[in-house]
Amino acid sequence: MRETLEENPFMTDEDLADQFSVSIQTIRLDRLELAIPELRERIKGVAKKQLDDVKALSPEEVIGEIIDLQLDERAISILDVRIEHVFARTGIARGHHLFAQANSLAVAIINDELALTQKATIRFTRQVQAGERVIAKASVKGTEKERTTVEVKSYVDKELVFSGEFIMFRTNERETKRRETE
Amino acid sequence: MRETLEENPFMTDEDLADQFSVSIQTIRLDRLELAIPELRERIKGVAKKQLDDVKALSPEEVIGEIIDLQLDERAISILDVRIEHVFARTGIARGHHLFAQANSLAVAIINDELALTQKATIRFTRQVQAGERVIAKASVKGTEKERTTVEVKSYVDKELVFSGEFIMFRTNERETKRRETE
């Protein structure tokens, strides 16, 4: 189990139970015995390492929790929708929170000191309720001069709840970086 | 001066000084004498009345302060950008705050109990710094079936800093309303 988790730290107890054809209870007991933390804690360990890579904003400025980050390639974050994120009357998550999660991920993915959103086209495709966990997946679609296009798709379970295309302006500070590493 | 302000409660002391060809100092003294509150306080009085009209969300859920609202026509809100709205490294306002101001105004303008953002195309046209005041102006461009298009333009002084087109989904609850007023 330790090896399996080293390869894929994001496996849930359920996934592990499936893989080893045992019950979830067995997996939990084995984890306790081997002192392997639960998924949430494992993710945090990975996330801490990933966050050190973020360049364009301070890690604590990211809305949601980054669990995967390959600069200028892809990034994933999770946001647990709580009561303070929803409209009082309807219990539906307010759009700007889903936007903030996606937008800050689009900033975090940029491998430059400065990244600013220039334009965004976004769609809210399914209502999100308090208690649901939104997983945002960002990927870089291309860079032309100082403009990088980042696509973000956010899911609850496997259902698409939000999608957006972000055009990010970035400063080309490669010169500065080169000097720093010399 | 009292008459002038009744017609247009949003005039600044500077506007009044211009209109009456006197110094700003004179206007201030006159205001004190006539017990006319300053612009900010006058706006709050108007805003309180306007807010009672908001239907699709609770007034305290609006990001920024609504100072004008004609349901299904136009709305204006102001947001004072503070240190908690900006990126620590650059001092530039984070996009999701400008988005939240515009989006909640697009919700507030809808004359229905339920208004949800379906799609938005937004542009950030100039960086905003802490200490600046953003004035967002929303106007309804049209309604087709249950979709209303709202255009929002946000300014600092007279410079456009943000623009967005929001496609809002609304429930047609006119039946319910009719019953309530009978």
From TrEMBL, chains A, B:
Coiled coil: none annotated. Keywords: DNA-binding, Fatty acid biosynthesis, Fatty acid metabolism, Lipid biosynthesis, Lipid metabolism, Repressor, Transcription, Transcription regulation. GO terms for biological process: fatty acid biosynthetic process; negative regulation of DNA-templated transcription; negative regulation of fatty acid biosynthetic process. InterPro entries: HotDog_dom_sf, Transcription_factor_FapR, WH-like_DNA-bd_sf. One of its GO terms (molecular function) is DNA-binding transcription factor activity. It comes from the Bacteria. Transcriptional factor involved in regulation of membrane lipid biosynthesis by repressing genes involved in fatty acid and phospholipid metabolism. NCBIfam families: PRK04424.1. HAMAP family: Transcrip_fact_FapR. Belongs to the FapR family. This is Transcription factor FapR. It comes from Halalkalibacter wakoensis JCM 9140.
